[in-house]
Amino acid sequence: MIKDRFDLEQAIMSCWNITEDIKLISQMNDIRELSEDERMNALLGLETLYNMKFEILFDGFTRMIKDGQIK
Length: 71
Known about the structure:
Structural class: mainly alpha
Strand content: under 5%
Number of strands: 0
Oligomer: single chain
Distance between the termini: 20 Å
Number of helices: 3
Radius of gyration: 16 Å
Shape: elongated
Helix content: over 70%
Order of helices and strands: HHH
């Protein structure tokens, strides 16, 4: 749960991990080739995970505005 600006900053930084996670999926082919199903499952999983992260981030942001922590 996001309680203050430091938690908000951590949540923002966590969302930037999407770029590293996408790179990881593409680099996997250097170790072994992913099937189309495996690649799509990984991408759909990322989509679900990051939708959750962004939802938590936005909820925390709007709460902080409502509580007057961000003006």
